[in-house]
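Q: Given only this backbone (211 positions), what sequence would you predict?
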């Protein structure tokens, strides 16, 4: 995502940061008007490029950088989440999310969420839930393995990172309580019990019983 990151920051982030510095040179009313104009321009630009390939990856890249201002990261992740909600369930040929983008998102979103602050995690977790309900397990066979890997790295991960994974897991698995029973559903539950449950139990033992 490095090339995408540099491209996005050059076009969108740097002008904003420059504007932030220039704002100090004007009085408060002008500062408000300048920011308002920038936000309107940015929103219009995002709408124009929404159907371009890599659009969703650009938003994710912007969320990833801790040096980017928090309000930009927050706006980017909310835009990403809403974009996923609108477009991921559809497999129409005119859909805004290409197959390459879908695969790239699924490959990186869990790791990104585990490294993000809580307010970013919450939005990414909602997006993961939408993707999981559509694609797991057939179209997202690596999901459980990626979550388990995060558990196994718990010595280097903070409680906040692990908690983000658990929240996403809860959002994905809670439908087992009420969804109509079928052979397909039982097979999915069996998969989760065989792969995810042992790793979760081991994490519980380590965190609770090991001092």
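A: Predicted residues:
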């Amino acid at each position: 995502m490095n090339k995408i990151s540099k491209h996005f920051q050059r076009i969108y982030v740097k002008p904003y940061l420059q504007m932030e510095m220039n704002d100090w040179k004007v009085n408060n009313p002008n500062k408000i008007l300048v920011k308002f104009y920038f936000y309107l321009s940015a929103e219009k630009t995002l709408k124009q490029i929404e159907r371009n390939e890599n659009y969703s990856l650009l938003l994710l890249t912007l969320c990833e950088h801790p040096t980017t201002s928090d309000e930009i990261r927050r706006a980017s992740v909310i835009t990403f989440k809403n974009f996923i909600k609108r477009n991921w369930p559809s497999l129409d040929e005119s859909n805004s999310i290409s197959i390459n983008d879908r695969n790239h998102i699924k490959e990186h979103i869990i790791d990104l969420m585990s490294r993000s602050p809580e307010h970013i995690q919450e939005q990414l977790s909602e997006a993961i839930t939408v993707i999981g309900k559509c694609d797991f397990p057939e179209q997202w066979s690596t999901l459980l393995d990626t979550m388990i890997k995060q558990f196994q790295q718990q010595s280097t991960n903070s409680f906040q990172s692990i908690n983000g994974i658990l929240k996403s897991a809860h959002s994905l698995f809670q439908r087992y309580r009420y969804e109509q029973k079928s052979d397909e559903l039982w097979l999915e539950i069996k998969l989760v019990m065989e792969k995810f449950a042992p790793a979760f139990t081991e994490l519980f033992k380590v965190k609770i019983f090991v001092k």
